[in-house]
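From the shared-data thread, chain only:
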Amino acid sequence: MKFGTKAIHAGVHPDPETGAIMTPIYQTSTYVQRSPGDHKGYEYSRTHNPTRTQLQNALAALENGQHGLAFASGMAAIDCIIKLLQPGDEVISTNDLYGGTYRLFTKVFANYGIKFHFVPMHDMKAVEEKVTANTKLIWVETPTNPLLNIIDIEAAAAVAKKAGALLVVDNTFSTPYLQTPLDLGADMVMHSLTKYMGGHSDVVMGAVIVKDDALHERLRFLQNACGGTPGPQDCFLVLRGLKTLHIRMQRHCENGRAVAEYLQNHPKVEKVFWPGFPEHPNHAIAARQMRGFGGMMSFVLKGDRMEDAVAVLEKFELFSLAESLGGVESLSGHPASMTHASIPAEERRKSGLSDSLIRLSVGIEDAEDLIEDLKQAIG
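Structure, as tokens:
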């Protein structure tokens, strides 16, 4: 089944009660049992909900996995993954990652005896040098947020396998339309469904997808025991979003290229971070493991002055200044003060994230209008 067909049909089925083609919103907390323990597969909606079940099946199908698990947010999904670990375990993570992930690792789980190492992953030697007998998990974002660094998933999987560690790939920026990390050796794929998968800036959710049955059982226990599960209305919204994922992502990629090329040729722009450029670090790896380069990019103005960046952000008309990304509308952001403010300034600069960096989530509007907006804002 091709991806576009899967996006519409895989993992879902018409409602057996009524024939409704769209998955119903099962807005219920509990389910009637014929006799104690004699039920129709559903007891309590924290544990299972029919709307969530179909979403989880659809997510597994799109990522070429066997099992999907949905959560109330991307952070709840990450929280569940890290709870697989024990005090004394070590995690190797990319040093250029979403600020909320960094905050959860360093401000929450580090307090429970889990050690985190943050290293640049463009070269796997840096990862191999941090591997110890206690390394239990390797955390990858690719492309990274917000510098769009590319990490070789197959190479990371080889390092993880040799170390006896699990490999997690945050696939939020790419979605399974552009890359499927489980096919490249990852053990778990994590998503903020809030972004491209939902696609309409109207829901907050997260997900984890796996192939291994035993790993799924461990995660499913934690999902139920800790309770960070989504409601059926949110699950319905993401199911609806998935049906147009392939069409939206194709347009995001087309517009992304047009905007990136415009910025690269702008006399006031110093540098553009977008993996579709041949000169982008690890572009060859991106071309090999991705089926397109997406609509996320960042850029720095000449002079690298924060006040210039703020002036541009205030002038945008179509690129709305807001947290988040991946919606049909174009968004702009200032990572240093918004999405990555929880990372200390010294650590941000060490990974190349300057205070004047502007991040763009290029939407699916007409590219000509987006370029006109950039033209008037940058000057």
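The longest strand covers residues 135-141.
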